[in-house]
Amino acid sequence: xxxxxxxxxxxxxxxxxxxxxxxxxxxTANKYEAVVPHWFYCKVIDSRERWIPFxxxxxxxxxxxxxxxxxxxxxxxxxxxxRYDVHLKKRLRYAMYWEEEVSEVRRCTxxxxxxxxxxxxxxxxxxxxELEETYMIAITLxxxxxxxxxxxxxxxxxxxxxxxxxxxxxxxxxxxGATPTEQGRPRTVKRGVENISADIPxxxxxxIDHLVFVVHGIGPACDIRFRSIVQCVNDFRNVSLSMLQTxxxxxxxxxxxxxxxxxxxxxxxxxxxxxxDVDLERITLPSINRLRxxxxxxxxxxxxxxSSTYCQTIVDTVASEMNRLYRLFLQRNPDxxxxxxxxxxxxxxxxxxxxxxxxxxxxxxxDGNKEGSQMGAYEQGDIGGxxxxxxxxxxxxxxxxxEKERMDTQALALCTEKDLKDMGIPLGPRTxxxxxxxxxxxxxxxxxxxxxxxxxxxxxxxAPKPESGSSPHLGTRTSSTNSGGxxxxxxxxxxxxxxxxxxxxxxxxxxxxxxxxxxMFLTVRGVKRIDPTYSLPTCKGFFNIFHPFDPVAYRIEPxxxxxxxFEPMLLPHHKGRKRMHLELKEGLxxxxxxxxxxxxxxxxxxxxSFTRSPLLAVEAAxxxxxxxxxxxxxxxxxxxxxxxxxxxxxxDASPINVGMLNGGHRxxxxxxxxxxxxxxxxxxxLQGHLxxxxxxxxxxxxxxxxxxxxxxTLDQPLQ
Length: 719
Fold this sequence. Notes:
Layout: H1 3-9, E1 38-45, E2 48-53, H2 56-67, E3 76-79, E4 84-87, E5 92-95, E6 103-108, E7 110-113, E8 120-122, H3 125-141, E9 146-149, E10 155-160, E11 163-167, E12 187-191, E13 208-215, H4 229-247, H5 249-253, E14 259-265, H6 268-272, H7 276-283, H8 289-297, H9 300-305, H10 308-332, E15 339-345, H11 347-357, H12 383-392, H13 399-404, H14 409-413, H15 417-423, H16 427-450, E16 510-514, H17 518-524, E17 541-546, H18 557-560, E18 569-570, H19 580-611, H20 617-639, E19 668-670, H21 685-689, H22 696-708
Parallel strand pairs: 13-14, 13-15, 15-16, 16-17, 17-19, 18-19
Antiparallel strand pairs: 1-2, 1-6, 3-4, 4-5, 5-6, 7-8, 7-12, 9-10, 10-11, 11-12
Helix pairs in contact: 1-3, 4-22, 19-20
């Protein structure tokens, strides 16, 4: 008997039933419309499975591919801006740029409300089809109160189009296999995603204008909620999309811009996978166990970076990861023509600063060949070069491994030990290969240093020279040799751990530092001043962004202009002007100064009138003017302090020469604290260090500076 015949054979419910849920509106009878599916993926959040909807744009792409009925078993659909691929046949979602658990994907039409969080959970695709068929028969024949049993023995009853419930099976000790009963609290069943009030994003613009790599600081967690760098950068990216819609609306409507892509760079996991955690575990005391493990996992990262062994591991990981991500991004976005910038939080900003100060500007090679470039002579991009290298190392039997992976000399130069291990190269041969690559790189660096004209040593003769006994300025070139025998290119290496800094395969446009300790580390290393003429070799933009209560952040500008006291640039609020409590505070300060000045002026004039002999009217007026002028001068010298916010906020108000580290523009930018943060600076110190990921003001500054390089400005300039 077919499903339709079975439904027709069943008696219809009594028309005089007192149950209100059996009342069906007349206009819904015999009118069936197919449900519109939406695609979801499952993600574990806080040890609980949550079903998250794809954007409308991605769901339409998946549905179109699903309806195409292609026989391709390996059909892949890129989603979420190309950061994830969905294997349609397997119903699995894979992260492309970082390591992440594979997620289940589901084409969803029917949902039921969950137990604890009242979130709607989709039924399986097969059972949803069964529910949809039953619903179609019920609404077509106008026969309701249909009961279904799911594969997990759950009972679903369709009372009418607006009342459908779900009962979980009751666990009993019945050995006779009794059928489940309608017991327990019923849960709501909904048909179609439009009925579950899910927050479904529209999607991201397809055009990518700029790429930004984001490097995290100490520890595996990056914010106050202990989330990973991937989750924090996801927030950063979402805020960026929101700011583009509100502050670059005109440019978006004219299709001048698309979006900025942010990709996370993780170096903590590779560092702690070297076996150092096992070594630390042996020497860690058993008392206050959680605190000691927290210190081992987070704060010790600072000490690792000051160790020559692990410093090399960290800089190698950061550089190779950014190069790998860049190559993969270009592979997945072959039409990308935009620039690249980098951003670092906390210790990550210091790692990037050290990396950038040790880059070699390839524009110095006027002949255009690669011999003096950052990748060395072995980066010629030919597979034959790899064969010659392996032959020289007596490892020719492994050439087939490299040929299979299409590994040329350029790829070999960027290869890490993990890459060679994944290719199946044994420990001994891969050690020889890595040693050859690093030795070749160091040889090229030494050759490049040897070809620097002798006059370059005195390149900064016109710059202010350090005092006797003080360390040289950052930006002066020295011929000091570190412990590894490698000639230092910049004196930033004084006090810095010796490391062979890898080269990036691109030139960053701008370097953004969030909550950065760069200034403190440079000072500890003995660098007392940054030469005003100094700029990063391959990056011409540098912004030091910090929260006023961030205990880890330090300024940069006072190291360039040590004799002048001035405030950092105040970042405008993303809605314009200053926060209300800051304007009120500034207004009260100004009003208090005016009252004080007026009171002092009145008292001084009155005192002079008592102590001096009578004068002519003209002389008296002149004396009064002189007194007021003298009083103003004294008030300015005595009452105006550096921390007064009167001169803060506008770059044009007081032009200050802070050198070329940011192309002649200001470097230090301070966020406006929130009203609640003003009550207790110490209470919000930790939050101040971790606030940047969801800061609209920070994101807006980044977007403003990036799009300025393309000649695109904000809809309305912020004041």
